[in-house]
Amino acid sequence: xxxVKLPIPSWLPVDGYILALxxxxxLAALLPAKGAAAxxxxxxxxxxVAFLFFLYGARLSTREALDGLRHWRLHLTVLACTxxxxxxxxxxxxxxxxxxxTQPLYxxxxxxxxxxxxxxxxxxxxxxxxxxVAAAICAGSFSSLAGIVLTPLLAALLLGKDGGGFSADSMxxxxxxxxxxxxxxxxxxxxxxxxxTRHRGPLGxxxxxxxxxxxxxxxxxxxAAGVWHQVSGLRLLALLGVEAVLLAVMLSLTSYGxxxxxxxxxxxxxIVFAGSKKSLAAGLPMASVLFGAGASLAVLPLMLFHQxxxxxxxxxxxxxxxxxxxxxxxxxxxxxxxxxxRT
Length: 343
What we know:
By secondary structure, the chain is an all-alpha fold. Helix content is 73%, strand content 0%. It is built from 14 helices and no strands. The chain is globular, with a radius of gyration of 19 Å.
């Protein structure tokens, strides 16, 4: 599905969708959904996310996925980065509490380290950098599917009581909201696949709109619970610094590690972009199930990391592309591709 960008001045360091996310947070702060309205918002967000994953299933070619299995070393490398290296770094950050991060912010940071990789932005940046796009498609898809099971299990293991009451019922709810629609899309792809391809532009609104609905519902619930009294501006700056270090470490590890493992240049690019990023689209609905009223504070690190990874990876993709063309890297700030803003 094609990204839907909002027109903003070219000098602004964020894209229109990031501004829409911030505006949604502001709307939830000023006019939070309460009572019956909160139930309607939560139901609409759940339905939109389910439809989003249904479209993912309808888009992904089964043959493409099976062909991708041949590149099992690359996919295992991305999965190891996403569900082993990231969580290990998240656990190491525990030493920053309470001196740098508060316990709630650390819980959100650790949850960030447990969610799956992105699909669309990994593909967009890999394509821009002239890497192995097919591998990025499969790696991101496999990571998202694995995350439906692994993220709740890791949350139960590593977050404990901070996970907001993880249970078998939580996993069932996540599977029903994400995995079941995806499988339904795969089953119906033979009949609806061409329609989804022809209307990828209008259907792109579903992608971003579903996330905005989840953000509004989560932050409305957080406002009702008073969670925003737990964080200060100084703590937010500290969180940004910690996440900048986390992203830099993962980009370095994926780049150096893939080289040492003997992958060629195109595969290394796919590993760097798929192995260093986290999915806002998958993480938000999972957080709403796992954390309940505390979801707004729990997903704050993920929202900040999402913007940071887009800006940094846009710069890296431009430099990789320039290197491939044998030209000097272009100066200037990040200019994300038309689909890079998606999760």
